[in-house]
Amino acid sequence: MNRSWRAALTVFLFCLAGLLGGGILWLAGSPESASWLWMAGGIPALIDLLRRTWGALRRREAGVDVLALISIAGALLMQQALTASVIAAMLASGRLLESFAERRAGREMSALLGRAPRSARCYRNGALVEVPLDEIVPGDRLLIRRGEIIAADGTTITEHAVLDESALTGEALPVTYRNGDPVRSGSVNAGDAFEMVATATVANSTFSGIVKLVEAAQRSKAPAARLADRYALWFVPLALGMSGAAWLFSGDPLRALAVVVVATPCPLILAVPVAVVSAISRCAQRGILVKGGGALEALASARNLFFDKTGTLTGGQARLIRIDRTGAASRIDDTELLRLTASLEQMSHHVIAGAVVAAARARSIPLGVPDEVSEIPGSGVSGTLDGQRLMVGTYDYVTREAAVPGAVRELLDRTAVEGTAAVLVAVDGRYAGTLLLADALRTEAPRALRLLRKTGVRRIVMLTGDRREVAETIAIGLNIDEVLAGQTPADKLAAITAARESGPTVMVGDGVNDAPALAAATVGVAMGARGATASAEAAGIVLLADRLDRLAEALHIAHQARRIALQSVFAGMGFSLLAMLAAAFGFLAPLYGALVQEAIDVAVIINALRVLRIRPLRAARHRLAAADVERLRAEHQRLAPVLDHLDTAIGRLASMHPHEALPALTALDTLLQAQLLPHESADDRDVYPAIAGLLGGDDPMAAMSHSHREIFRLHRSFSAGIARLKTQPADTALLHDLQRSLHALDAILRLHFAQEEEIYQSVSED
Ligand code: ADP
Ligand code: MG
Questions:
Q1: Set 48, 140, 164, 308: catalytic member
Q2: Cα(482)–Cα(499) distance, rounded to whole angstroms?
Q3: Residue with the nearest Cα to atom 25 of ligand 1?
Q4: Average pLDDT of 452-480?
């Protein structure tokens, strides 16, 4: 890419030198030598043109370059050295602008590559040593100093780490990680030095995966000239016909030359590629990796959109709610079951597997290293640990080897309506229990889907390997046209293949099980880049930022880029046609024709470069600072334990003796009063007025304030219930009332938090 830029610059400077040198000689009174210099200056441009035309012919592409070739050759034959020189300069400057745009696009991506670390600091035998990257193995303890780039994926073992992930995600704001959180290679340590344990080799880490993707993207040249070639089919004959006619009727070959000169279709050759590379560069700035013009073109024409569920529509940061061992044949307790399961799940890239491992880490359970691991994507994993054979995954998967009691089916049906992910576990061929995880919809998902509809998507389908009940719970309110559940990777592939018959189809997925479908779609979109994954390799677009709304943004950029490219092409061609007419009727001499054409080219290319400035998709006009949004979200995260406490209390209340209930409920009440209520008051008092100002309108937060009032009302009735329970501790009806108000409180709080986060996000800046 750099070489092509340097070559284009050299050719252009050569032309310019010839042009200027010739001009000086001409002024000095030696037109003969001036002509020679003008012609000599054009030679590199001519060679470049011949090379490109030859290449196009060999690829059997209709070349528009042929007009440029004819005009230079014609000018030389007619001894119009100055004209030939100006045409050559025009071609060279066009190429220069094109490679400028390419270089810009390349720079966004190469910025990523240039940052690759070369070695890492690692503890070996208790001492901190510098080791080459390929010697890092999973389990190594690494020290990352401030400003250093993380070399391998891993988990932090320091209380606090602040990472700048902007190169990966386009997200300017540093992200805070806590002890045990997974971190990705390629991020920069923006805070104090911290320690981490590598979970992958450098070659298998996220950053290496992205580098490979970027290199592949840079190799695959955009097929952007296709559009130009379609027009060439009628434009080239038209220009030649007009030129011939002008010659015939006027008897003046110079007119014919003038027509071909102004027909030289630089806008066609250049506007589209410039728009495409600019769009790819714009996407890269937003954490969207586009692997070539083809993917972008497909995105702009997308009509069908297929989404995977787990990890794509849901965040994949599922929270372990509880472990159910009803009917379990094996006598393993919760902690041991979580240890075994999480140890095995370390080997899987599935998002639910990641959530299980995180749950074990959060409980400080030390994990083992399993053997003989094998995974069936979208079903589960098996392996051995401490001499026990483990099987972890879906109902269908585990029932292959273990008898699962009927109660489990009921459990799955009951929890499915809450969208809960269930992970079944069998140990030594006997059912041992089920891990229930709440996998919530991504906060940005509803907004992203609305934006996608707005950008012209007609049909949205959910495609999931999960059960229908869970899938439908997640789909509620998303305005999804169709839900296809229980899909194996092969089913997903078949669905995509079928959809392609009805129009350009986009598949969005995250897992290995989506890879075939991603590859089969008109364009596949992979969510995030965790590790060097198959899905990111199969996809045409990777959302490094791991946010669904970036897909809407990519679509928006693709549409705008296409619009601007077409605008450039049509305006450029229109002007060229006018100039051709003028030339045919003798109003434009070849030399001036070349100058006019140069002006049109520059205007058209500058217009195409506008793609670099496409503004992100937005609803509101004003913005909340990203740091504020982060703070508000962090506050909700801080309150997550309170909600968990509420959940547990509800669960336990059902089986509790009335006498035990009072202390538990009083403790809960204290917690709510100390943490939750002050938060809600502060929101209503300080945050909402500010948000209302951003949203505009009369009182846009009225509905949200209403739920504050409802939360306070429910809490009051709960407190009042507790007070009464103190005097009549055995009143079961009262206990039921209390349970009901807790249920209501729980439901409203979860909804309320989600709504708030969505509002904050919708008014946030980047
Ligand atoms: P989706 O298509 O919605 O992304 P998948 O096809 O990836 O879902 O997975 C389908 C189901 O299989 C999920 O509900 C998940 O719980 C289960 N599953 C797949 N792989 C694993 C694993 N390694 N560990 C636990 N559960 C798994
Ligand atoms: Mg998935």
A1: 308
A2: 12
A3: 393
A4: 85
